[in-house]
Design brief:
five-stranded parallel sheet; 5 strands; 12% strand
Length: 191
């Protein structure tokens, strides 16, 4: 399919290690633009490291990158009371929704036909929940949510191999401060 005939897809991107396999898969059928919106990533130095790495990688692919506001306080307010939830619980669902809401809103504003996210490439993320939220947010609107479980068919393994090939920094937590280590005192705002 020629680039002129491909639909425009806005890809919510969480980090460089999750991106290669997903982008390679999507570029077969879509004109992909990446959107980095991750107010869940803490501390700020970690956020900046991940942002710089995805910028550098996307430049090598000539894939456009849009960067959303780092609104950590919004994220902390949204997950307040869920600090001690286990990974994959209600807090994660709220986090998926926050990031996908912003992605869908930007897609509508900029005229993208479809949206999706790299999140489902991780074995720690539940594709059925991500896809349900995506469907709910796009509804019967002009933007379609591209449902996927990018970890299937060795997607996660391929992503790991590609990350190693590119020498990406591979973080040991999703980005949420509550997933990094046990928290004894809730953190509510970033100063």
């Amino acid at each position: 399919m020629s680039a002129q005939n491909k639909k425009k897809l806005l890809l919510h991107t969480c980090c460089a290690p999750c991106a290669p396999h997903v982008i390679e898969t999507l570029r077969k059928d879509f004109d992909v633009c990446s959107f980095f919106y991750n107010p869940n990533i803490h501390p700020l130095e970690e956020y900046q490291l991940r942002l710089e790495e995805i910028k550098g990688y996307l430049e090598t692919l000539s894939v456009e990158l849009l960067v959303g506001e780092y609104d950590a306080n919004r994220w902390f307010r949204a997950v307040s009371g869920m600090e001690h939830e286990k990974e994959g619980g209600r807090r994660c669902e709220v986090c998926y929704r926050i990031r996908l809401e912003k992605t869908v809103s930007l897609a509508q504003e900029k005229g993208f036909q479809q949206v999706t996210t790299t999140l489902s490439v991780s074995p720690h993320k539940k594709a059925n929940i991500i896809n349900r939220i995506g469907r709910e947010l796009t509804g019967a609107g002009d933007v379609i949510f591209y449902e996927a479980d990018f970890k299937k068919s060795d997607g996660f393994k391929k992503s790991c191999e590609m990350s190693k090939k590119h020498g990406f920094y591979r973080q040991n937590y999703c980005g949420c401060i509550y997933s990094k280590a046990p928290i004894h005192k809730p953190v509510h705002e970033v100063t």
